[in-house]
Specification:
single chain; 526 residues; alpha+beta; Jelly Rolls; 2 domains; five-stranded mixed sheet; 12 helices; 19% strand
Amino acid sequence: MAHRTSRGRAVLAAITVPLLIAAGLTATPTASASAPSTTTGDRSTPSRAEAHAALVRAQAALAGHGPARGGPASRDATMALLDLVKVRSSLTGADRAAAAKAVARPNLAHAACTASNCYHWDTSGSDAVPATDNDADGIPDYVESVAATVDDVRSTYAGAGYRTPEPDGSLGGNSQTDIYLADVGDQGLYGYCTSDKTFPNPPPSYDAWAYCVLDNDYSPSQFPTNTPLENLQVTAAHEYFHAVQFAYDLFEDHWFMEATATWAEDELYDDVNDNLQYLVDSPLALPGQPVDTFSNGAGPQYGEWIFFRFLTEHLPAASGGMPTIVRDMWERADGASGGPDDYSMLAVQNALAARSVSLVNAFTSFAAANRMPGLNYDEGAANNYPVASPAGTIKLSSSKKDSKWLYAKVDHMAAATARFVPGSGLSAKTWKLKVSVDLTPKSTDTTAVITVARKSGGPQVMVVPINTSGDGSKKVSFGSSGVKYVEVTLVNAGTRYSCWNGGPFSCQGTSKDDGRKLQVRAQVTK
């Protein structure tokens, strides 16, 4: 198993953007600064219409309706089924029966258990596993390969300090976590984990046991990217991390569940790189999209793993071969009896604050690093991480020295970048660029970062100091003999929410900080 933290990390010494770039932005180790000032609704009281809609989504996911294999929909079944598990007690009649069928475990003829998990398979019919049994022990080699992989995944997560999946009583034959092997590739799925626990309304706690379904062979005809073993490995790591998550909070925000599971699969199987496909929907490629976006049938929540990669590369303290900060976030999100039960972004904030890093600081640094990912990530250059085009590019010259005020409307936990290029008449190194910004008041967590891309040497990165009103300025080098361009990244790190109203962001809510008007002006001077 190729654990990321087992490799040398000397490359990190060359990272251009440190996590503490935003000097003076201090940690807030309590919930008060980011907790929503108002909430609407309750996550435990769905309407019957909402419950029916969850049933329809789950049925569609299991039927394989959605984009072609390999896209985000290939992994959407877990979240669709979780939505159904959470609300099925609100269903009645035919809908309740259909929900029970949707979350029912596969009925397979054979089973064998290790000390950690039980494995179920068929030897005939559409779900049959490959029959090869080289050691003639009555257990097909493919089943043994799955067991070795999943048991190793479980051991790694447990060794890193995560909870193990909860026991399920006698379901599946005993209390161990059950892994079923079925032809889910025919449904356009890699696999899924879910729970058949029934929650009362409201539930006394939000934790649950899990069972998982993996493909019966990962045939290249159904999974043309990567080898069958590689697809098994990353799917097992991803889905079993969901089983671990359920032991903390099955009701947790979906973006957080998927982003951290996608991060985890790459921590365990670093060389497979299946998660790179999701970077097209990530903050690297779409900086204007909030980092806590969830969308049914789309890819933002998978691409958001890069946020956790950034944090763990800069806060690499590890246990059992995995960075501890993500585990600490899940411990903050713990919705089991007696747990803190932070919602996702609050859990992120508090785990950072425990390390004396503010979320505003971390996100500002993240937004700046994403302008040059090849320099700022361990594997950014080798894996050709994407970079978004600037929101606007302005060429200044000796005859056009003022960009005038430019603005972008930036949503919460998102950013926009303007690029200024030195043109004719500005070759002398004495030319400077005065960058002025007009942001929202400092209390609303908007910031601005300047990146000077030099023709020799690494880039210079600095935060624009602002006053309490959100205004500030800074001069930087701009002579074309030494500077290729200057970028100003406008950052909205606001995390105020209206919660539990069915929104696509943290606390299943909507943001109070979207659409902030952030302005920048660039003037050539000496």
